[in-house]
Amino acid sequence: MDYFAQQLINGITLGSIYGLIAIGYTMVFGIIGMVNFAHGDVFMVSAFIALIALLILTSWLGIVSVALALFIVLIVAMLFTSLINWVIERVAYRPLRGSFRLAPLISAIGMSITLSNFVQVTQGPRNKSIPPLVQGEFILSNSNDFPVTLSYKQLIIWGITAVLLLAFWYLVARTQLGRAQRACEQDQKMAALVGVDVDRTVAATFVIAAALAAVAGTMYLMYYGVVTFSDGFVPGVKAFTAAVLGGIGSLPGAVVGGLLIGLIETLWSAYFSIDYKDVAAFSVLAITLIFLPQGLLGRPDVEKV
Amino acid sequence: MGAAQVAGASFRTRLGEGLRDTGLTALVALGVFLPLVGFETITDINNVLILTTRWPLLFALVGSVAAIRFIYALILAPRLERGALRLPLRASSTAANILHNWFIPFAVAFVIVYPMLVVLAVGFGGAVRWIDNFGIQILIYVMLGWGLNIVVGLAGLLDLGYVAFYAVGAYSYALLAKTFGLSFWILLPLAGTLASFWGILLGFPVLRLRGDYLAIVTLAFGEIIRLILINWVPVTNGYAGIGSIPRPTLFGIPFNAEDNGFAAVFGLEFSPLYRVLFLYYVILALALVTCFFNVRLRRLPIGRARGRDRLPVARHQHHQYQADGLCDGRNVRGLCRLVLCCTARLHFAGIVHVPRIRDDPLDCRARRHG
């Protein structure tokens, strides 16, 4: 039971990271109906930006306060990743809007390969590891010689995810931009007719998606302390699985799906085989798409003829 | 004079706008490249990550981006607007006609005599590399491309996991040849049969999905196959791959320096070139058969009744074809057959790939777009 509780804590932590990436997928899919394959690699790039920002802060500027450093790193990573994703949208996706359906998808696959190779060339193919930033943990129970712990960094991840989700929910539900986004999601042409700047709204969507991915990337770096150029693909596909599982296009669905995928992966690793944990996640993706294509919280897709 | 003034004014505005654009582009490029190009993370002797800077590289990169933008704004953009760079749609001359009529026979003849030309040009020793790298490898890619052509082009299905079949083909050859001692010529048709099973197994559940969903699911299946190949160490030997796979023979005559080898039997001096030549012509024959098959397939009803959502137009066509009885309710059966053809092709390509490098083809992800 203690073992299970510990895996539950680990799974929720992992699931929070997946959930944040999944929101990016689901938002972009909702608004322009495209699977942004490069999103996983944007996440990886953001982790690298966070790594570099962290090294600048700690080794060059000599900031010792971990909280302050983490805060600045978060902001810097969000800014630069947003800029990069904005450029990607401008260069690789916008010219293809209105082209045949799969064109942006193929372009996104190309972008994904470009990003990971770009990082490989500029930063080298090796693992980049940093000493643990945040140490210490709460011991929740210590029966049967198996301590159930909740480490501070897990707590930080939970906290930041919760705060961000609230902010994000406010953005989508209560602001002008959120309303424009929902309008574009329903009908782009009609939205344009009533004066919504579609291009700008789509660009803003990519910027927000990148900002959330950057938070996930920073927390990934803080949690695991290691990042490499190929780290984008697998978390990306898993986050996409989360988005699909929750119902693509649905924002709460992405979070629920993220948590579920995190739990499935952790429990699978804990009770079955750690080698095949990715197989488990991908199987969930395939099974969901085949048997429940609208996901848990999604609307069934009406095919327009 | 008036016209010259207008031209001058427009040049001046263009220059101004171009400079503004260039400045903005340079700024954005600086932002994009600053973290990852400006700084490099290096692990030093104490195994600690340290940062170094690469300002010259960063500024060179940003500078070239800005220069390209400036040239575009000043020179290319106005011409594009005037349509000066538009290519003539049809170059209808006798020369073009002759080229059109004779291109295909010439190309086929060229690939057939290519090895001989290479041998003539660089001699026996140097020819292996040229035939191997530029002949066989290219033909393998051509086969992969044709497989993709059927699935994506003809059926309209973006199948991202299709290189997995290539890996499966390569592994089935390696494992069956090594464990059971089956020869290349038995395995070639056998792989086609295996491919049909794989195609049906994966095809039936997956092909009910639409466009991008299908892309993702096939990607997932591809990844699953790759992960299994890596992790199932007792069978596949994981990352290390499978070595010393039996090489293909010419109806039982091996290509080696032994007394019963190809060179000895035909009274020739031994050279590794013969094996490469043999493989080259095998894959060339397979490629020509494939090509013929592809061309014929397009003329069959199954080839003409395209996929469901390739294009909106094709979708309407689909309904029409459905009305004509050319495809069943969701066209799953027809698409399945197409996928089956493609997977068989990939198996062949994978099989030919293996004896060439005698190594495991786990690099197949790089070949996603074969």
Describe, in plain words, how this protein is organized in 3D.
The complex is a heterodimer of chains A (305) and B (370). With 305 residues, chain A is mainly α. Chain A has one domain (2-291): Orthogonal Bundle (ABC transporter involved in vitamin B12 uptake, BtuC), CATH 1.10.3470. Chain A is built from eleven helices and four strands; from the N terminus they run H-H-H-H-E-E-E-H-H-H-H-E-H-H-H. Chain A has helices at residues 2-32, 39-60, 66-93, 103-123, 152-174, 176-186, 188-193, 198-224, 233-246, 251-271, 277-291; strands spanning 128-129, 137-141, 148-151, 226-227. Chain A has a two-stranded antiparallel ribbon. In chain A, strands 2-3 form a two-stranded antiparallel sheet. In chain A, strand 2 (137-141) and strand 3 (148-151) form a beta hairpin. In chain A, helix 1 (2-32) runs antiparallel to helix 10 (251-271), helix 2 (39-60) packs antiparallel against helix 3 and helix 3 (66-93) packs across helix 8 (198-224). In chain B, 72% of the residues lie in helices and 3% in strands. Chain B has a two-stranded antiparallel ribbon with strand order 1-2. Chain B has two domains: 7-82, no CATH class; 115-367, no CATH class. Mean pLDDT of chain B is 70; it is low at 305-338 and 353-370. Chain B starts with a helix and ends in a 13-residue tail after the last helix. Chain B is mostly helical and 370 residues long. Chain B is built from twelve helices and two strands.
Topology overview:
The complex is a heterodimer of chains A (305) and B (370).
Chain A lengths: L1 H31 L6 H22 L5 H28 L9 H21 L4 E2 L7 E5 L6 E4 H23 L1 H11 L1 H6 L4 H27 L1 E2 L5 H14 L4 H21 L5 H15 L14
Antiparallel strand pairs in A: 1-4, 2-3
Chain B lengths: L1 H37 E5 L5 E5 L1 H28 L11 H61 L8 H18 L3 H23 L4 H21 L1 H4 L25 H4 L7 H27 L1 H4 L7 H13 L7 H26 L13
Antiparallel strand pairs in B: 1-2
Helix pairs in contact in B: 1-2, 3-9, 3-12, 4-5, 4-6, 4-12, 5-12, 9-12
